[in-house]
Amino acid sequence: MSVVAPTIPSLRVIPSPGGPVDTQELGQRHEPFVVEALAALWGKSRERAGGTTSLLMAHLLDTAAVAEMVWEHYLARSTQAALDEVAGGTGRGRTFFVWLCGIHDCGKATPAHQRLWAEGAEAVRRTGLSWLETAAVAGAKKHGRWRHDWAGGLVARELLAASGWDARQVDWLWPLVAGHHGAFPSLRDVQEPGPAKGQLRGRGKWRQVQEAVLDEFTREVGFASLHEVEPAQVPTRALQLQLSGLVVMADWIASDERYFVGVDDLASVSLDASRKRAGAAWEALGMQGGWRSLGVPGPEAFQDRFGCAPRPSQAMAIDVARQLGAPGLMVIEAPMGEGKTEAALAAAEVLAARFGADGVFVGMPTQATSDPMFTRVRRWVETIESRLALRVMLLHGKRAFNQEWKAMRDGAQAQADQPFRGVDEFGLDDDPYGVEADPACSGSERQALSEWFLGPKRGLLAPFVVGTVDQLLYAATRTRHVMLRMAGLAGKVVVLDEVHACDVYMSQFLQEALRWLGQARVPVVLLSATLAPAQRQTLFEAYLAGAASREELDVKVPAPPGYPSVTAAWISPAGETRFHSQATDSWRADLEVVVRTVPEAVPGAGASRAKRERAQAQAEASVGDLLASELADGGTALVIRNSVARAQSLYAELRGRFGPHEVRLLHARFTVAHRAELTEESLRLLGPHTPRQPGARLILVATQLAEQSFDVDADLLITDLAPVDLLLQRIGRVHRHQTTRRPHRLRTPQVFVTGFQPRASREPSLAYASEKIYGRHLLLRTAALLPKEGAAWSVPGDVPHLVAQAYENDTSLLPEAWRPAGTTAMREQETQNRARAEHARQFLLTARGERELPTLAGLHYGGMSAASDENSLRAAVRDGDESIEVALVLKDGPDAGYRTLSGRPLGANGDVALEVLDDVLGSVVRLPPHLTQAAAALKPLPGWYGHPWLRGTAALVLDSSGRTALGDVEVSYDVEFGLRTMRRAGAAAR
């Protein structure tokens, strides 16, 4: 049966406001029971629609009206153009998009949904529609996942095919309907379960009703028939994924009962009425897009944005951005302190203007580096258009402790006094709307930006986003609602800093993300000071394979012709791969950095505890002596250790020698609030604009937190041995700014490398912590690259050559006596890398061999990853690090009450008053991995279970001295050292 009889004229079933439904004309098109069914089918029950039943047709039109708002006020020009192309002409993309969003719930016109609410089910039965309840119950029990989303996929597939759509168009569209609750089933999945055959999908008269729902909705949004809706082209999978995310976005907004109250009278249902509700909701939620229309910046723009003329490398990046023939990948390689961030932002503005992007995502390696970048991006966005500065999202788990974010949040206008209400309550075992108790979804935090973007899984949909690179990597995972993340990235320019910091495991997700971004025609800018040639090759291969919609693409990436450099690539409209590579001189002359070795005795694995403790004390005394000598006339020093325990132990030695006022400690096992304060203090004390007092000394002992994207300027560096690219990053914190005044003896930059012991006629012995983190292979190769005593590295001139040598797969770099050990270490590393890469693939969004499939059907193959919250997602993309976070609280005794770390009282069960909430949240700290098993039994305090911010947070209760036991380990916390662990038998801190 055709959905629309061609002999019947176009009919506006739902009239404009003020005019009643022409029931006579409606009756001419449909049998009486169909008209009655349209007036009875419910989309949301009375309980979930503001006290009045919401008809299904009303919800479909509400969603369509929201989609109109999304198109007009949110979608990037690039997305609009892509949809016009798919739909078959300028202007058709809008109507097609609105139609696609609206039909998402067509599966609710089935017994699978209508039976779930007794009152609504009875009204539907009175129209003559029926089902065998016992069979439906049996089918639902056996196949509980078969609900209205899957039913809708099946209904859409059948009716579109019946209307004459090409099979290829049907095949890509039905999964978007079936997957609008967050996961894409296969065609096999959506088949109605055997025990309920026909009783959940609907038999007999149900087919006519389903045809009528789709037909009348289609006409209302502007198409003459269902056949007329058919697109002209099949969109890429990336565009399908983006569209799916936008469908979910429109559905979630249209499901908010605050703005979309129930409509139970068919005569009151109209697209015009839905438009009024959608407009009011859009305004009340403060929804907004980004630039909307952005002109290509002229030569003067850099000066306007950053207050200075561009350096040669920055001008080069802008020039290359102007030359790309299509959206593509740019890799900017330049020294530390060269101004890569400004170069990338300037290039992003050009790319956005040229290719129709509406915002940016800037990804950083850590939360600590994201915070200062948030400030820089806000200032840059403000220079383009001042009002946009309030639309910048900071996206990481500890943003509540960023003072600028808090100020922006608290200064925003007050919003609605209740959280988002959009959950479909019938038959759901999961949380399809993603609103499950996310702290950002309620309370005052919504003030910082449109409240809607602050909900879980939605942060990337904000127009301008600064966050950890993890946020991008999450978009490459096979997890529920991944389409929302990809919808947020599409339509933006993506900028990733310190891209070399992604290890073998994380790189699998980065490459997967680049494939999808390439296919989505998203311009991407990657930044690095120390990028290995092999890593550069794989990044381009991934992006270009995606852009070409190929499983793999065999390309030869040209080596940069110099340093600093920009390498760019894109796929031309004719399908050809194009490269552009350019280099220039650095804005400043090479810095001759003297590199010296400070040997450290490394006891063997069988050494006694006493011997290990003596060796450690000697090593720390040696560092203390060195600092006392070098800082005799004052100055600043940065000391980077490869583990928290080594940093804490050295800090204790230096504090005793120099006093607490001259030594600072910074690592990742301070509470989040304390760490934020210490990071801010470190950046201030060692920043380029802080006056240095003659004779004053300052020593910062830190872990890898100070390795990159950490704008400090030290006079000298002492560092544990690390892979050469990371070692060079650390060197980038020394003599970073030429304007800094330094003591005479420190005017030559010096670096002292420790953490290993050279040995005659064989390879050096390596500190246990360093070898565990980085592996023997790269540490041995780096040790072989260290210059002879007192010689210098020329930075940045030597950087590309040093990195390339370190990452070559041969042992010729090593002294002959080291080569047997080097060969063994290389083979061990290769085996480990293969295993880690293979482990990562179980979480990747696309399985190997499926990247050229034309549709999203079955994308969530083999069951989804269990990762859903921030901690589990982070573990998924960071090599399964199962360390957990806990909130530290104090309790003086069995009968005493709980207190915060600062001593403020909590309720008897740990209940948290609003005025002490920040204290509790600020006390969160990540435990070291070796405590994960012992900490597994930790739970929230009894009073936290009902709290939206704390009910998922485990508490670690310390006694009045700040100590407790976890298994055989004593755990303590104090403001000087942070979290420390020690075996209860009295062993040294781990």
From TrEMBL:
GO molecular function: ATP binding; hydrolase activity; metal ion binding; nuclease activity; RNA binding; RNA helicase activity
Domain Helicase ATP-binding: 300-547
Single GO biological process annotation from the record: defense response to virus
Chain ranges of the HD Cas3-type domain: 49-253
InterPro entries cross-referenced by the UniProt entry: Cas3-like_dom, Cas3_C, CRISPR-assoc_Cas3_HD, CRISPR-assoc_Cas3_HD_sf, DEAD_box_RNA_helicases, Helic_SF1/SF2_ATP-bd_DinG/Rad3, Helicase_C-like, Helicase_Cas3_CRISPR-ass_core
Domain of life: Bacteria
Keyword list, A-Z: Antiviral defense, ATP-binding, Helicase, Hydrolase, Metal-binding, Nuclease, Nucleotide-binding
Pfam families: Cas3-like_C_2 (PF22590), Cas3_C (PF18395), Cas3_HD (PF18019)
Family named by the database record: In the central section; belongs to the CRISPR-associated helicase Cas3 family.
Protein's name according to its UniProt entry: CRISPR-associated helicase Cas3
Organism: Streptomyces mesophilus
Gene: cas3
